Amino acid sequence: MLTKAARRCRIIYALGLSELWKAPQKRMASKKANKGQRGRVENRKINIPVMVRDVLIASINKGQLLIAIFGLFFIILAIKMPGEKAGELLFELLNLTVRGYLLGYVLFVITVIGWYVQTRKQRRIFTGEISRIADEKKKLQKKILPGLIESSEV
Q1: CA 97 → CA 59, 80, 87, 91, distances in Å?
Q2: Are 42 and 34 in contact (CB under 8 A)?
Q3: I want to staple 42 with a disulfide (CB 3.0 to 4.6 A). Which of 6, 36, 68, 108 is the partner?
């Protein structure tokens, strides 16, 4: 009877993934890592670049990268703008809003709503495709490596 580690090694070598398996083992062995939920390795060092990276990855995953980029652009503009010019700009924007020049805003809101609906539809399609591919992979693994892969199904 093979141990769990031996079965894993046989599966990895049978699938031809031995090069991919060696690199993470070396990296993980050299780092001092904390085990988090579900056995994931977590790096506890948090700083500004890590925070920006995590926010960008989350915005990419949710389809909101464009909004994040525009938001960051306007925040940088607001920080760099002198105080008296910022007041003038705000006053001018309020005047334009009061005078009825809202067509651009309405079109912007319609565009954002359309983008949101299209992104949700696309995400559903992609999720379905990923599930289909995962099912195909499981079937092929059971066919190619019978009895070597432990089932996660209860």
Answers
A1: 30, 24, 15, 10
A2: yes
A3: 36
Residue 104: helix, strand or coil by DSSP?
Answer: helix
Do residues 13 and 20 touch, judged by C-beta distance below 8 A?
A: no
**pLDDT, tens only, 112-131:** 999 999 999 999 999 999 99
CA separation for the pair 26, 81 (Å, rounded) = 49
Can you count the helices (H) and strands (E) in the chain? 6, 2
Angle between helices 4-15 and 18-30 (to 10 degrees): 130
- Report DSSP state, residue 150: P
Label residues 87-114 b or e (16+ Cβ within 10 Å = b): eeeeeeeeeeeeeeeeeeeeeeeeeeee
Q: pTM of the entire structure? A: 0.35
Residue 35: phi, psi to the nearest 5? -90, 130
Distance of alpha carbon 128 from alpha carbon 115, whole angstroms: 20
